[in-house]
Design goal:
The protein has 3 helices and 10 strands. It is an alpha/beta fold.
């Protein structure tokens, strides 16, 4: 028996397994309920935004999601560090637009994307803190 923590999200399926077993089973863990963010009526996970950011060439692995409460809605702003080579090449607005379009294509939500200079997003010890609240 495998145990999963409370609030893990998965999909239950009763389809027959390729090996022939007929018991209900669940998919891989899709995320955690406490990581969920609801933006403009769409539920998304930080991991999905990371996937969209990483698909765009010229971005580094350093990004931060800033959650802003503008009652009654929650909006997101994504800060992204480009690679030093991409930053030196210029046309940063084009990179922000590409990332924004990739997020929209994957999630169906428009998100403000800001490209910041390399090294400007704070690094954390241990697990990276990707989602922050706006001040």
């Amino acid at each position: 028996m495998i145990r999963f923590r409370t609030r893990d999200l998965a999909i239950l399926t009763e389809e027959r397994c390729e090996c022939g077993r007929t018991l209900p089973r669940h998919s891989r863990i899709l995320g955690r309920a406490d990581d969920m963010i609801k933006v403009k009526g769409v539920i998304l996970f930080p991991r999905q935004i990371e996937e969209a950011v990483m698909r765009v060439e010229g971005t580094s692995e350093n990004y931060q999601i800033v959650k802003e409460q503008k009652l009654p809605l929650t909006t997101l702003r994504v800060l992204v560090e480009p690679t030093p080579e991409r930053f030196d090449a210029g046309r940063i607005d084009e990179l922000a637009e590409q990332i924004s379009q990739e997020i929209y294509a994957m999630l169906g939500v428009h998100v403000n994307v800001e490209v910041v200079p390399p090294g400007s997003i704070p690094r954390s010890e241990g697990k990276a803190k990707r989602v922050t609240e706006a001040e």
